[in-house]
Automatic annotation (TrEMBL):
Pfam families: Methyltransf_12. Coiled coil: none annotated. InterPro entries: Methyltransf_12, SAM-dependent_MTases_sf. This is SAM-dependent methyltransferase. It comes from the Bacteria. One of its GO terms (molecular function) is methyltransferase activity. It comes from Planobispora siamensis. Keywords: Methyltransferase, S-adenosyl-L-methionine, Transferase. GO terms for biological process: methylation. The keyword S-adenosyl-L-methionine applies. CDD domains: AdoMet_MTases (cd02440). Residues 41-136 form the Methyltransferase type domain.
Length: 247
């Protein structure tokens, strides 16, 4: 079964597509304090939950969303239409690393999508290049909240240096030419809500759609749930930074 479709189905009940709750998302966007006429770019936007909420919070802002999933972009377009935002968002089906903007942005988002650039470091470099000199970025990625066990590393298919701890992650973003002006460290409840939604939405779809696709979806959900519950739960954290470009 297509991985992009599995992701879309898994995020049906949690379109934020990261272990971040709606209240935390709104607080992060509100801290951006975008000026009228600002331009927003969402790299790896998925269903564009972050961007659509930003457009509601800032009525004079326009945005571009970039993703490789046609299914997710179709969902984003439908949601934008339902919320009366279609005229203020442009959606681009292209790899985030290949996107070439016409002009820089006031706010660039890359939350849970740094893999599109090959990791946090390359993602920060790309984000910095998309920003105006005094622009802001919202970047979210994992960090080791506790030292990973061999079991967790095996289940994640990760190396010990795949992530830094939280202080190391802060150093990494500031070494990349930013200052952290705000941050949100996802709470255990946000992680659990995200993971139960991810696995549960996919399991429900699988039960409603018996057959090869349903079996594939069920297998993906159960493998993911095992990796979470018996691997990285309580070990892998998630932090979303509001960053100000420097230099």
């Amino acid at each position: 079964m297509d991985r992009q479709l599995i992701s879309l189905l898994a995020h049906a009940d949690h379109p934020i597509a990261a272990p971040v709750g709606p209240a935390s998302l709104e607080r992060l966007l509100a801290r951006a304090r975008l000026r009228p006429g600002a331009r927003v770019l969402d790299l790896g936007c998925g269903q564009a939950a972050w961007t659509l909420r930003a457009l509601e919070l800032y009525p004079d802002v326009t945005a571009d969303g970039v993703d490789v999933s046609p299914q997710a972009l179709a969902s984003a377009a439908g949601e934008a239409g339902a919320r009366g935002l279609s005229g203020r968002i442009r959606l681009h089906e292209t790899p985030a690393a290949d996107f070439t903007p016409a002009e820089p942005y006031d706010l660039v988002l890359c939350v849970g999508a740094v893999h599109a650039f090959g990791g946090l470091g390359p993602a920060l470099e790309a984000v910095r290049g998309f920003l105006r000199p005094e622009g802001l970025a919202l970047v979210g990625d994992g960090f080791w909240d506790e030292e990973p066990t061999p079991q967790a590393l095996t289940r994640l298919g990760a190396e010990p240096d795949e992530y830094a701890d939280l202080p190391g992650t802060v150093r990494a973003v500031e070494d990349a030419g930013f200052r952290v002006v705000y941050g949100h460290t996802s709470e255990r409840a946000e992680w659990d809500e995200y993971e139960w939604s991810w696995t549960g939405s996919l399991i429900r779809w699988a039960l409603d759609n018996p057959g090869p696709d349903g079996e594939a979806a069920l297998t993906a959900a159960l493998e993911h749930r095992d990796m979470w519950l018996n691997g990285y739960r309580g070990i892998l954290g998630f932090v979303t930074f509001l960053l100000r470009r420097t230099g």
